[in-house]
Write a structure and sequence with these properties.
heterodimer, A: alpha/beta, four-stranded parallel beta sheet, B: alpha/beta, eight-stranded mixed beta sheet, two-stranded antiparallel ribbon, 3 helices, 20% helix, globular
């Protein structure tokens, strides 16, 4: 018997779902939404029209998706998905165990059966699934949630892979947290006036550094006037804030839509405290989280997925050069950026130099275990952080140094 | 503190867990716990190298991206290395989901005074009864 929270009021239909009258799958999904609603003292559920699910081809979220499918659930709204790995393409290059292969296939099957859109990309906010300003959504994926909240001004809580899927099959989410204006105000001030933030790598290091310090505050960034962050910079910032910490919302004064002015970013409140970040903080952070240099066997880029702009940059750096023989260079990207790279000629340049582009694939997958005996290089702290668990050490460098390393076969 | 004392808490995920206490001063990402041993492996973490399996884990909050927390805890579940209950200070949705999937008792809203008390004890054992919203010394 489920007892309602003190504040939560369920509609007749919602009660029926919780009682299992719409099938076991929807009941299980609703139980999770119900638990969240109670914890965060929501008074009601609100309808949503899109979701993004952090499909991972790992066991946890796969099992949940299978439970819902077996219980008869189906996505009621547009629901895009994160990348697993391109089983057909990468199996030619790498050996994986039968268990690993079958788990990836099981996962893709489950999300197909539940009616998700199989775009397999971790940056849906850039093209496949773009919420409008003020739209209520349920987006999981640490690269995606801060982006749609902060950059697009949509409203999503920090959904997990399974809570976003639960919201997708019910078509609703509990109204709490970032769904309310008052909870979206900046709480602390981060002064970046001393920093020349020119590359996604540097924004990523900044995000990783701050995520650890600020926990779940909502930072408001004040930039040096000459700095203008690109999409990729903002993707890296959000992904890292949400990896080393649990930050799913930030503002940048005069850049992001809810921060046209300093005062509006804080919605009239005073910052609790402020931090001025120095170049030294970033270099020390990189030192601390990066492994030491040496001979390498892998350059792994695309966490979050590389955009067409970043692919072009790699093509420019690699044109007329060659990746060292003992080294593999892999770039993970979306299916659409891969297609654009082919049309625009970047794909051929990178292939000619010995590099590889692959769509539908995440860096945190078993296909990369081939390289685990050696040292890797990446421009993404998030990539290094999750690869650590699978047993490969990574050196974290900016993109030009990553490409230099791929040519030399070693890194400082 | 009196051994019979009962501390109130708030239920987030139901269930009852018993075990010795382990306290983390840093947020936790369960993906960086080795599922085969239940030992936390994250570099520079206050619990690096320590086993969290079968313990009452007291920690400030979850962290890490939206999928790995769920998969991390599920991996501990299938290897029988879950903590026996979680006591958290700042709750966030991803942690709720992860504990929901594996039916791991999870509570919050425990008085700071009690947390300070348990920090000062060695080898303290607790029972966390999320159903009754109570914690007691055992």
């Amino acid at each position: 018997m489920i007892i309602g929270g003190e504040k939560l009021k369920l509609t007749e239909e919602e009660k029926k779902i919780l009682d299992g009258k719409q099938g076991k799958g929807n009941q299980r999904a609703m139980e999770l939404l119900f638990a969240l609603a109670n914890v965060f003292e929501a008074e009601r559920f609100i309808s949503i029209h899109r979701a993004h699910v952090a499909l991972s081809a790992q066991l946890g979220d796969t099992v949940f998706a299978e439970q819902l499918v077996e219980g008869g659930s189906e996505c009621k709204i547009t629901t895009t998905t994160n990348p697993p790995w391109d089983v057909k393409y990468l199996s030619k290059y790498f050996s994986v165990s039968n268990d690993e292969l079958s788990l990836a296939n099981r996962s893709m099957q489950a999300y197909k059966k539940i009616g998700a859109v199989l775009n397999y990309s971790c940056i849906p906010g850039l093209g496949d699934n773009v919420p409008r300003f003020g739209e209520h959504v349920a987006f999981s994926e640490s690269s995606a949630t801060p982006y749609v909240n902060s950059v697009l001004g949509a409203r999503s809580n920090r959904e997990s892979s399974i809570s976003a899927l639960a919201a997708a099959v019910i078509g609703k989410t509990a109204e709490y947290g970032f769904h309310f204006d008052c909870n979206r105000a900046g709480t602390i001030l981060i002064r970046l006036e001393e920093l020349d933030l020119r590359t996604p790598f540097k924004w990523g290091i900044l995000g990783f550094y701050l995520g650890k310090i600020i926990g779940n505050e909502i930072p408001v960034f004040q930039l040096k006037p000459s700095v203008y962050p690109k999409d990729e910079d903002l993707l890296y910032l959000g992904a890292e804030l949400n990896t080393s910490g649990a930050v799913s919302m930030y503002h940048i004064v005069d850049i992001t839509p809810e921060a046209p002015t300093f005062q509006k970013a804080f919605r009239g409140n005073k910052p609790k405290y402020e931090i001025a970040v120095k170049e030294k903080d970033l270099s020390e952070t990189r030192e601390k989280i990066s492994s030491r240099g040496g001979k390498i066997n892998l350059i792994l880029l695309g966490c979050p997925h590389y955009t067409i702009k970043q692919i072009k940059e790699v093509a420019t750096l690699l044109e007329g050069k060659g990746v060292a023989q003992e080294v593999a260079l892999w770039i993970c990207t979306s299916y659409s950026a891969l297609e654009l790279a082919k049309r625009s000629g970047y794909f051929n340049i990178i292939r000619k130099a010995g590099g590889n582009l692959v769509a539908d694939t995440c860096i945190d997958q078993p296909c990369w275990k081939t390289f685990e005996t050696g040292l890797g290089v990446t421009d993404s702290p998030k990539c290094a952080y999750y690869r650590e668990r699978r047993g490969q050490a990574f050196v974290i460098k900016d993109i030009d140094e990553c490409i230099q390393a791929s040519i030399k076969g070693e890194v400082e | 503190m009196n051994k019979d004392i009962i501390i109130k808490c708030r239920k987030i995920i139901k269930g009852i867990g018993r075990g010795t206490v382990i306290i983390s001063s840093d947020p936790i990402c369960f993906y960086l716990v080795d599922p085969r041993t239940g030992v936390l492996i994250e570099k520079n973490h206050s619990l690096e190298g320590q086993k969290i399996a079968d313990k009452i884990l007291v920690f400030p909050s979850g962290k890490g991206s939206s999928v790995v927390q769920v998969d991390g805890l599920y991996d501990l579940f299938i290897h029988n290395h879950l903590p026996s209950a979680l006591i958290v200070k700042n709750i966030e949705p991803v942690l709720v989901s992860a504990a929901f999937l594996v039916n791991l008792p999870l509570v919050d809203q425990v008085e700071d005074e009690f947390i300070t008390f348990i920090k000062e004890q060695d080898n303290l054992s607790l029972e966390v009864n999320a159903d009754k919203e109570e914690i007691r010394l055992i």
